[in-house]
Amino acid sequence: MSACQIATEANFPVAVGWAQLSLGRTAAARSDLPAAATRLDEALTTFTTTHSHYECARTHMDLAAVGWAHGDGDAARRHLATARGLFQELGVPRYGERVERLAADWGISLEGGRLSS
C-alpha cells in the first residue's frame, strides 16, 4: 500500500501532501519533469488546503527547481518569490536565505519580476 493511499485512508491530509511531495521530488531526481510538476502541484494544493504555509513554501522551492530545469525562468522566479514571501511571513530566515542563494545561482532577480541576464 502506498504512503499516499494510507494517509488518505487515515484522513491525514498533511501526510498526503508529504507523500505527494516525496513523489514529486523522486520524479524530479529521475529527471521526469512532467511527473514532478504534477505531483508537486498536487502537494501544493494539499498544503494550501490544510493551511500548511511552511510546506507550501518548501514546495514552491521544489517547483522553482523543476521550472528552472525545464527552462522556464519565469516560473522559477514566481515560485522563488512566493517561497521567499512565505518564509518571511513565517519568520524562517534560514530558508529565506536558501531561496536567495538559489535565485543568485540561477541569475534570477526576485525584485521587480524580471530575470537577470
Could you characterize what this model shows?
The C terminus is likely disordered. The radius of gyration is 14 Å and the shape is globular. The longest helix is centred in the last third of the chain and has 18 residues. It has one domain: Serine Threonine Protein Phosphatase 5, Tetratricopeptide repeat, CATH 1.25.40.10. With 117 residues, it is mainly alpha-helical. Helix 2 runs parallel beside helix 4, helix 3 runs antiparallel to helix 4 and helix 4 runs antiparallel to helix 5.
Number of strands: 0
Strand content: under 5%
Write down the CATH class: Mainly Alpha
What is the ordering of alpha helices and beta strands? HHHHHH
CATH-assigned homologous superfamily: Tetratricopeptide repeat domain
Q: What's the total helix number?
A: 6
Helix content: over 70%
Characterize the biggest β-sheet: none
**Radius of gyration over all CA atoms, rounded:** 14 Å
Shape: globular
CATH architecture: Alpha Horseshoe
CATH fold naming: Serine Threonine Protein Phosphatase 5, Tetratricopeptide repeat
> Low-confidence runs (pLDDT<50, min 5 residues)?
113-117
How many domains? The number is 1
The average pLDDT is 91
Structural class: mainly alpha
Distance between the termini: 47 Å
Quick summary:
The protein is built from 6 helices and no strands.
List the helices and strands and how they pair.
Layout: H1 3-9, H2 13-29, H3 33-49, H4 53-69, H5 73-90, H6 93-106
List keywords for this structure.
0% strand, mainly alpha, 77% helix, disordered C terminus
